[in-house]
Structures are given as C-alpha cells and as structure tokens.
C-alpha cells in the first residue's frame, strides 16, 4: 500500500496552514515534511488532521470521540475513495451529526 495524500486539498478543506501541520508532526514525533512520511505515518497524519478539525469545529468534545467516529465512518467507505472525497464526506457527516 502506497497512499498518495493530497496535502494541499487537506490544508484547504481543514484550513490548517503548513505551520499547523508541521506542529502536528512535531507533536507526534513524525518527520516535519509530509513527503518524507512512511505510508502508515501519512495515513495517521491525515486521519489526525481530520479528527482534530472535527474537534476544533465543535462536532466532538474530545479527540478520542472523533477518532472512534472517524474509524467507523472510514470503515464504511469504498477502498478507492480519494482523500478529497474522504475529507469532504467526513465534513458532511460531521455537519449532519449535529442534527
């Protein structure tokens, strides 16, 4: 498995800047340049960004809640979903969960 993460799209959708992402990398002990991440590290960071976004936006009170919901959400998606589709679907799902 060699995932290709669309970091620019994730930055645009989550509104995290490059410095934010570098901070997440440093906090997690990851290389600060996403292009140097191993595939499993890239997936971890992508998921971390999406879960943190949902906590920041108030959809979840705690990260662990967002992480559990995201894992269940992600398991229901087809294997060939792109990062943009995943992120956009997660955001729509989060918005719908408030209703």
Description:
It is a single chain. The protein is mainly alpha-helical. The protein has five helices and no strands. 23% of the residues are buried. The mean pLDDT is 89.
Strands, helices and their partners?
Layout: H1 7-14, H2 18-28, H3 39-56, H4 63-75, H5 83-97
Helix pairs in contact: 3-4
Number of separate strands: 0
Distance between the termini: 36 Å
Shape: globular
Helical amount among residues, as a percent range? 55-70%
Major sheet description: none
Taking all residues together, what is the mean pLDDT?
A: 89
Strand content: under 5%
Helix segment count? 5
Ranges with pLDDT <50 over ≥5 residues?
none
Using only C-alpha atoms, the radius of gyration works out to 13 Å
Strand pairing plus helix content: what structural class? mainly alpha
Order of helices and strands: HHHHH
Descriptive tags:
single chain; 99 residues; mainly alpha; 5 helices; globular
Brief rundown of the structure:
This protein is 66% helix and 0% strand.
